[in-house]
Amino acid sequence: MIVSRLPFINAAIHQLARQSVRKEVNVTRQMSGVHFRSGALKPKPGEMPFGLFAIICAVIPGLFVGATISKNVANFLEENDLFVPSDDDDDED
Known about the structure:
Elements: H1 2-22, H2 51-79
Subcellular location: Mitochondrion inner membrane
Function: Essential regulatory subunit of the mitochondrial calcium uniporter complex (uniplex), a complex that mediates calcium uptake into mitochondria.
Keywords: Calcium, Calcium transport, Ion transport, Membrane, Mitochondrion, Mitochondrion inner membrane, Transit peptide, Transmembrane, Transmembrane helix, Transport
């Protein structure tokens, strides 16, 4: 039954292919950040002179703040007996 329908499917596929070839498809890329409407390329954006320094100034304080918060939360959990490390984990031989 499926085999008998294949010629019709093939004919439909070929007809669609012929119709798509006849149509002219105008595909234009819209990259407004790279060039002007006239087609001229935009100038290269300026670079930040202290790029690495700015990254370091953002990461280092973030690490210290995160470590301080985690230390305070760990102390709070231990004081309130919500999480107390067991002594069994130590390897005392």
